[in-house]
Amino acid sequence: MPCVIDLDYIHNHPVGNYADVLRFRPVSDETKEKLIFLYDKGYSPVSALKHVKQSLEEENPEKFDQLLADRYHCPDYQFCYRLFMKEFNKQYGPATYADSLEFLNEKIVTDFNQEGKDKCIAMTQGKDYLLVAICTPLMRRAHTLLREAGELVFVDSTGNLEPRTSKVIGCFNL
């Protein structure tokens, strides 16, 4: 008994439309490096993506539409934002309150004190407060050269800054 197979080329998806496939490609290393370079220059994710699109149009005006649809060359905004946050966290640390305090203590306070070769910043954290004391090089010089500098202090209070009722009180010697 012979068997006859009839093949009908009917698909449940568009055939030959490669733009749908290209938008799922991984982003190239060259594009990632370009974005990181732009972030280091101060670009935001939106402005960096706009710059990438403009450079693609300048370099390949005849293929611009195809390159724009290809994620390998032109990433989506979500990718740019995630890459920006990844690079931002590498340079500036995480954005949570506890991690920010740890980052502030490790990077800012320690680095500034080592750079100045003296203890210029001190930080203390209590249960309900954070106290940061800063003595700038100019203040230190005034204290060493003028005896009166330690006797006169200007106090400036800003009041509430955030919903947490943070207060900044500046004490400046004259």
Regions with pLDDT < 50 over 5+ consecutive residues? none
How much strand?
5-15%
In terms of structural class, how would the helical and strand content be classed? alpha+beta
Indicate how many domains the architecture comprises.
2
Number of strands: 4
Q: What form results from the Cα inertia axes?
A: elongated
Query: The biggest beta sheet, please?
Result: 2 strands, antiparallel
Strand order of the largest sheet: 1-2
Q: What Rg is obtained from the alpha carbons, in whole angstroms?
A: 29 Å
Mean pLDDT rating? 79
Q: Give the distance, in angstroms, between the N- and C-terminal Cα atoms.
A: 108 Å
Q: How are the elements arranged and paired?
A:
Blueprint: H1 19-22, H2 29-40, H3 45-59, H4 64-69, H5 77-92, H6 97-116, E1 121-125, E2 130-134, H7 137-145, E3 153-160, E4 167-173
Antiparallel strand pairs: 1-2, 3-4
Helix pairs in contact: 2-3, 2-5, 3-5
